[in-house]
Amino acid sequence: MILINYEDLLKEKNYTLIDVRTPKEFKEEPIPGAINIPLLLDEERVDVGTAYKQVSPEKAKELGVEAIAKRLPEIFREVQKHAKGRLAFYCARGGMRSGSMAALFSALGYTTWKLEGGYRAYRQYILENISLYNKDVKYYILHGKTGIGKTKILQQLEKKGYSVLDLEKIAHHKGSFFGGVCEKEEQSQKKFDSLIFDYFYKNKPEYVIAESESKRIGNVYVPEDIFQSLKNGVHLSLDTTIKHRVDIIREDYAGATIEELQNCLDKVSRYIGNGKYKEYTNMLKENKIDELSEVLMVDYYDPLYQKSIETYIYDSEIFYETLDEGIEKVVRYLNEKGIFGKEVAE
């Protein structure tokens, strides 16, 4: 078994990164690319922790050994199934769990590493290095009112090979009171940070195209260096017809239930007054989704966004009636700036 830090691990190619923490720990704070082969399951770790606090460390170790012993055949099969090259194990702090697994598989003839400091050291490393990888990256920021299709344009630009940083996609949130609707799960801050670092490390972009964002997206916060780059980038103002915006909103929230939309309206209620809240609720009950979308955008979201619009100077203003037209005009602008997607460059 050899100790290796995360920076040196990044220089390696032929290895399998194995997280031996519980499934819950792994879900909330994984290292991208790692696989989870837990030494203890969630309930078992709770039992061990309880025994440690209420009985003794010796009792906790006894329970842990018993639980692990039962799982060893399954653990071995899982490692065999996924193993490619050297095995790099990690746990929360690079302690007993990863150390015991690395020692065991080393004794079985595998070449093993233990990630020094575990997940905690990894997190410290990425937080220190996000700013380093982000330094000198030029940002092109798409601005526009709710429903104009900024995210859809970003998605198409990415398909064309442009360097796109889609923070809302990484955050699992569209950035408003309705932003969590139709998303599969809430994002954790630690996973959000990891995916941003992973994007910069893998792509090493000279520029990125992103959408204008608040500091907070859903329940996660944009790292400060990234947020400042969003503010200091080159700004493009996008706009389209209200009819087109309603069409986009309808498509974006097609899978939403009435209950989910009502919950979001409840959150907005304290900002719109009781009269409008009742009016909007009745529209929702009557399934007047298009009418509700339009009135919410015009009466609530547009005035809010206008304040943000007025704080920037725009390098270009782009109007379109269809998404295809919008994408074409944004691509034309980027090409004029000497920025080409891989699709064009190749």
Automatic annotation (TrEMBL):
InterPro entries (UniProt xref): AAA_SelU, P-loop_NTPase, Rhodanese-like_dom, Rhodanese-like_dom_sf, SelU
Q: Name one GO molecular function term.
A: transferase activity
Name of this protein: tRNA 2-selenouridine(34) synthase MnmH
Residues spanning the signal sequence: none
List the keywords (alphabetical): Selenium, Transferase
Q: EC?
A: 2.5.1.-
Q: Which PROSITE patterns match?
A: RHODANESE_3
Report domain Rhodanese positions.
Answer: 11-131
Q: Name one Pfam family in it.
A: Rhodanese
Q: Which gene encodes it?
A: mnmH
From what organism does this protein derive? Answer: Candidatus Cetobacterium colombiensis
